[in-house]
């Protein structure tokens, strides 16, 4: 699996937002996209998951132009946890997760097992029968990740997958996604977490990708001050690590 963006420009409602972006995610890589609010990260992701069509350039998954693939094939290759959660859904949690199986021919028993496992992985087995709309923001986010897992794709796109999560759930979800070993492109805001979890990282600013590479090489104090307008200082600080379950 390989996601390859070449010279991709994207507009939303006629406004050019992303300009000439090049980006790669290789098989099994965890790649992060960071950048200030409004710089175009979600817009770029939306072009990859076909909610927007690029105005120029090419986006391929495994060598095929994603915008020319039949919808079902595209959904078999790429799963998305988008930023906006569907608010007024009158579906149960297990119905939402089962939507991840839509691109495949139904096999009720196998699907049920897969979905149960996906819910278990995000720690929400107990919520299977709940109405999605009644969940907390963090629970919703984890259900949507379970749906993406149930989709069994080799590429995951995550737009701020931890924005509603407390620190323990943030770490759990990031570890979980990393351990899956699925090629992942994630938008994250926390630069420390991005550094800790990413194989490679891209920085976006004003619609352009301005740097890319291993996090510790890319996120220099200079670049951070140019892009975010803040001074970055290394300090000894409180570091959060997951407790192992048995502890
Ligand atoms: N339909 C639209 N019409 C006009 N402008 C839009 C449209 N959609 C998004 N934009 C603008 O494009 C810019 C980039 O938005 P985008 O959501 O991609 O940013 P982002 O980097 O994901 O931001 P954040 O970190 O705040 O989520 C913003 O200024 C936004 O207001």
Automatic annotation (TrEMBL):
Residues 3-231 form the ABC transporter domain. SMART domains: AAA. InterPro entries: AAA+_ATPase (IPR003593), ABC_transporter-like_ATP-bd (IPR003439), ABC_transporter-like_CS (IPR017871), P-loop_NTPase (IPR027417). It comes from the Bacteria. Keywords: ATP-binding, Nucleotide-binding. GO terms for molecular function: ATP binding. This is ABC transporter ATP-binding protein.
